[in-house]
Amino acid sequence: MHDIRAIRDNPEAFDLGLKRRGLEPLSSRLVELDVRRRATQTTLQELLNRRNDNSRQIGAVKQKGDDAAALIAEVLGLKDEIAALEADERVLATELSDLLAGLPNLPASDVPDGLDESANTLLREVGESPSFSFTPKHHYELGEALGMMDFESAAKLSGARFVVLKGALAKLERALAAFMLDMHTTEYGYLEIAPPILVRDDTMYGTGQLPKFVDDLFRTTNGYWLIPTAEVPLTALAADTVLDAGDLPIRVTAHTPCFRSEAGAAGKDTRGMVRQHQFNKVELVSITHSDESDAELERMTNCAEEVLKRLGLAYRVVTLCTGDMGFGAQKTYDIEVWLPGQDMYREISSCSNCGDFQARRMNGRFKVSGEKGTGFVHTLNGSGLAVGRTLIAILENFQQEDGSIILPEALVPYMNGQNRIANDAAA
Question: Which of 38, 275, 310, 316 is catalytic?
Fold first, then answer.
């Protein structure tokens, strides 16, 4: 959510930010609505004061035995005017709020301009992609040949974009999540959380999922929303609170299922596990002081990268351009892992600094001890990592010519000593 006072003070900067997002200028419309709303509020307050004054005078006049009919008539007349102004103020406030709620966060000054992913800028490449003496297969070819990745049964149960993992692949998915959580909590200071995966409207609104992405979400028949990412409940832990600045930053992590309708992804990644309605993810969320979020974004990205380093997976980090950045982000790094089966890099994590954009929507604040007033916290989120896509990367990067998979050494303890997945090693 944007601060209407900041828009009033510097409309040119606001419109420039919208332009970088590919949107038309809107400051004049927003300021006009705000002026009308504030004028209505001023008039309304004047009438309320008059009504209250007249009501007090009525009592005084009656005590003296004088006729208060004129004052009573004016109070009754003011009642209708006040009701009309209150209705007008609600309409103006709703229109202004709806316009602001539908606008994305403005990009940071160092975010590259561009319309789509072609304008993203490469920051670094890490690791070497494997070379094969054979043509590497896609993860779904490997998984199905192992008899441990079943899309047909999933389709009978739930339809397209679901999978049933079996045996060692089911264990591998569990092992990956445990490995990620252990690293983030024991080495990088994240507090593990087990949050609800069903949330209310205001929780989805606070992180910017509503109203923008209603078509990408799943909703229950009794009004709950299935989370598209643990970012939603983790970030909302700071909603409607005033945190002590001395307790910041707050770093939390969670492993949850995530649910997305993929409404805008028709025809994309229809084979395999890359883009599904239900998937597992380890999420990282930070709540920081407004002065510390830039540094926290670098730290969070490094934490996510470390998972890939320990698994021996080649990857690259790119800065997303203004046209490819998410709705709530002011700056985003995408981490893309190398997939030999696709012969390309694919996103496995997005780490974003949202500034105070989400905090304003959910009213999350901090206070410095001994100082007056409060400030909005800054919120950050990132995948640490997407578990299913990490499983895909392991299958494709460590595949052998016979279709077996050699497991990274870091995962062997989480697989009860198993270091290879094959038909004869299913567990």
Answer: 275
Pairing of strands 191-192, 250-259: parallel
Closest by alpha carbon to 281, among 185, 193, 387?
A: 387
Is 153 one of the catalytic residues?
Answer: no
The answer to whether 260 is a known catalytic residue is: yes
The mean pLDDT of 326-346, rounded to a whole number, is 97
The one catalytic residue in 27, 293, 349, 350 is: 350
**DSSP string computed for 324-369:** TS-TT-SEEEEEEEEETTTTEEEEEEEEEE-TTHHHHHHTEEEE-T
Active site residue 347: yes
pTM for this entry: 0.92
152: buried, middle or exposed (CB in 10 Å: 19+, 13-18, 0-12)? exposed
Determine the Cα–Cα distance for residues 160 and 142; give it in Å rounded to an integer: 19
Catalytic residue among 36, 50, 347, 360: 347
Catalytic residue, candidates 251, 349, 389, 396 = 389
Domain stop point among 46, 68, 101: 101
> How high is the pLDDT of residue 1?
86
For residues 172 and 421, is the Cβ–Cβ distance under 8 A?
Answer: yes
Domain that holds residue 43: 4-101
Would you say residue 106 lies in a domain?
no
pLDDT at 425: 44
Q: Which amino acid is at 66?
A: D
Query: Do 182 and 231 lie in a common domain?
Result: yes
Q: 307 burial class (0-12, 13-18, 19+ CB within 10 angstroms)?
A: buried
Say which DSSP state 399 is in: B
Q: Would you say 78 and 85 are in contact if contact means Cβ atoms under 8 Å apart?
A: no
Active site residue 219: no
Residue 109 in any domain: the answer is: no
* pLDDT level of residue 270 (50, 70, 90 thresholds): confident
| 251 beta partners | 286
Per DSSP bridges, beta strands 331-339 and 344-353 are antiparallel
SS3 257: strand
Q: Which of 68, 101, 134 is the last residue of a domain?
A: 101
Are 416 and 391 in contact by the 8 Å Cβ rule? The answer is no
Q: What CATH number has the domain bearing residue 17?
A: 1.10.287.40
E runs forming strands in 147-200: 149-150, 164-165, 191-192, 198-199
Catalytic residue check, 350: yes
